[in-house]
Amino acid sequence: MRLTHDAFIEQQQKLLMTPELRQAIAILQMSTLELSTFIQKELEENPFLEEKEEVEESDKETVDNEKNIMDYLEDYSDRNTGYIEKNEKENIFDKFLARRPSLYEHLEFQLNMEIKDSREIEIGNYLIGSIDHNGYLCIDLKSVADKLNVSLSKVKSVLAVIHSFHPHGVGARNLSECLMLQLKHYGKESHLAQKIIQNHLNDLAKGRLGKIARTLSTPIHKIQDICDLIRTLDPKPGLQYSCNDEIKYIVPDIFVEKIDGKYIVIVNDYNFPRLMINHVYQKVMRERDLCSQDVRKYLEDKMGSAVWLIRSIEQRRMTLYKVARCIVDIQRDFLDKGIEYLKPLKLSQVAELVEVHESTVSRATANKYIQTCRGLFELKYFFSTGVESSGKSQQVSSKSIKHMVEELINNEDTVHPLSDQAITQILTQKGISISRRTVAKYRKEMGIQSTVIRKRYKG
Asked: How far apart are alpha carbons 39 and 236 in whole angstroms?
């Protein structure tokens, strides 16, 4: 066997993603608000970018700007770095941001308002620190007493004060105690409610009202009233102060207006400035004798970055327009008549019509919203699977079927609610071929309870 080192030529094909291409893909995925923030950041960092003004500056102002920039670059070329230390005082008000207090801050504030004794405040802070994000106390009271070297009765006394705090039910050690604390606060506590909460929560969750009624020897309509009350309570009161419930504003990326019977698609690019290349810096870059090699390299990089950014933003605008235009044309019946006429649609269908890759359509529709005459929708909303429909030449969107199921349940006789099989038969009569299992799946996805739980009892 021959073991040698030989040199040979091999032809390969590789797909290389340049930084510019990565930026273009990232810009395509950005929402209008995200792109506006990104552009402002680039305007601050790239001297070749400037906002296009409606009124052009005078020739004298242009000459002055050129002189100032040249003076700066002459000074820049004598230094090793372009960093300029800023001595201006920071605006201290920027450090104060309005936000909702956390659960622990909210409880500590109430603790300091209710209790003045320092020892009891110490116990209260320890208990509050042992409450999880759901609002439940996750520590044994005996261990708290041993840790702080206080009596168990003292710890129970402070905990009773915390139980009176908002959100109601906070500091409970289990679900039953949490629900009872809420009923006590609302003045709705009763012996029957206590029995159901302590012994029949599992039956309540599964809608076994008849079993509860038989066990407690109580008319079923009374059990139903108590169970309806219990369902209005919050099993996780601490989540009311979760950071995830902060208000989020949505700015439509696409507007659709109906004018003279035609739908006009408008890309929302009014929230960010029009960009152009700074001609002063362009002129400076042509002056080869002015800049050192390092400065010239810096200017060339910034120039290329500015040009590519402008092209990427324009490419994003055109791609969004083409994709939205295609969706509007396909879903015209939905815009005219409503959700029952929403058509099944796949990313690959739009990609083929727009003549781009499927991944491009996916990025273009990600985190984007469209304002229509039917309301504000995420672009992804218009993509759904289809179900075969007898008597029709095309499929029916799963979202349309969900809407039909919801309408049927909303209009049902609550004393005799529709079963999944009954809903299946009604849809079959309308020409929609669907199984009972699929109806149950759609119902659960919409958060609609089963027939047993929806059933109402008359007194």
From this structure: 41
